Amino acid sequence: MTVIRPPFRLAGLIVLLGCTVQAPAFAGDVQVFTDDTSGLLSWKAQHPGFSLQFIQLLPDYVRAVYSARGLSEDVVELMAGYCVFGTIIKNESDQPLSYRVADWRYLTQDGQAHPIKTKTEWLKQWQDMGVAFRWSLLPDDQTFAPGDWSQGFTTLPLPPDTPVKLHYTWSQQGKTYEGTFENLRCAPARAPRR
Amino acid sequence: MKAPLKTCAAHRPGRPAASRAALVAAVLWPLLAAAGTAHAELPSPELSHELTRLENPGPAPDFMLKDMDERAHSLSAYRGKVVMLNFWATWCPPCRREIPSMESIYQDLGKSGFVVLAVNEFETPDHVFAYTGQLSVFPTFPILFDHDSKVSQAYGVKGLPTTVLIDKQGRIVYRAVGGRDFDHPEVREIVRALLARDAGDAAKPGSGGDASR
């Protein structure tokens, strides 16, 4: 299995620049964006033929999504208690590619790597809580044909505004590739700007 | 970014708390997920027109679902037609973005034996009716309700939107995961090629356009 590590050396600086100038900043493969209205951040990693975006989602937004689906207060508050990112994955190549969330890790500030709670794990928990809803979360694994893409929530058990690294992988034509978002940050409890 | 706010009041009348939450969700998700940022120009993924041709088309699982008027639709009743089966939900930004293209191709090819069935996941007719009433393009194709997601599971749908094209023989011949521009000439060419085949034609699909892979 071949592992290819793209460079992300300036990602930290770019987060800072992105926050400051409120414009897309670019270094290596990661762009950082700041919403002028809310002040929320998003990150986009661009690799040859593959892109991955992480978008801060406010706890109130997460509450709204699940409340609107008619889920119980217990489930709504459970989900809002997580650090949730909107995640968009796209195959921009001319060959199939695949990913598995179970292979991804988030790294807390103490340097520990942790697995990411998968959709399957969430669905089991939801089922135990009497929830039939099965959408909104990023699918555990998918194989994308050229042009395919998907989106969904990625959940981390972290408090608002927590800095975190996230290591991701994807596979294509027998090779596994990897990358790291060096400077993700969970959404704050409230929008930085109103 | 210009958020299509007029399309976003996806709430169910008569449920104030949920309505407020749904409104927040409907406004924020397009801003955050589809376009990312309002002024930093994080692009939402372009809607491509690529459809994946399946090398070994298998039978499309039959189903019986009701539409907004409580009329039952079974897939088998459409045998002999070319069916675009689209799995979607109102909270899904790319689903909203591809609806106009679905309506356009349906308007143009519907009389030739082409059918669009939009299978909504987990939402209620009230909710969807309020939503579609505020779209700039009102969908005239049937919207069906897969309340328990059993049909989407039968089709192996992992994320929304997902779309399959079913030929006259009832086989899944193309698939697309993620939003698409179905109004593209190459997609039309694929549909026309499928329409041109006899229902009993065992020829492989896919001779009709560059949108296939």
Task: Write a structural description.
The complex is a heterodimer of chains A (194) and B (213). With 194 residues, chain A is an alpha+beta fold. Chain A has one domain. Helix content of chain A is 20%, strand content 39%. Chain A is built from 4 helices and 13 strands. Chain A has helices at residues 11-21, 59-68, 73-80, 119-128; strands at 3-4, 25-27, 30-34, 41-47, 50-56, 83-91, 97-100, 105-107, 113-115, 141-144, 149-156, 163-172, 175-185. Chain A has a 6-stranded antiparallel β-sheet. In chain A, strands 1-13-12-8-9 form a 5-stranded mixed β-sheet. Chain A has a two-stranded antiparallel sheet with strand order 7-10. Chain A starts with a strand and ends in a 9-residue tail after the last strand. Chain B has 213 residues and is of the alpha+beta class. Chain B is built from 5 helices and 8 strands; from the N terminus they run αββββαβαβαββα. Chain B has helices at residues 16-34, 93-109, 125-132, 150-154, 185-196; strands at 52-59, 64-67, 72-74, 82-88, 114-121, 143-146, 162-166, 171-177. The longest helix of chain B is centred in the first third of the chain and has 19 residues, at 16-34. Chain B starts with 15 loop residues before the first helix and ends in a 17-residue tail after the last helix. The relative contact order of chain B is 0.20. At the A-B interface, strand 3, strand 5, helix 2, strand 6 and strand 11 of A face helix 1 and strand 8 of B.
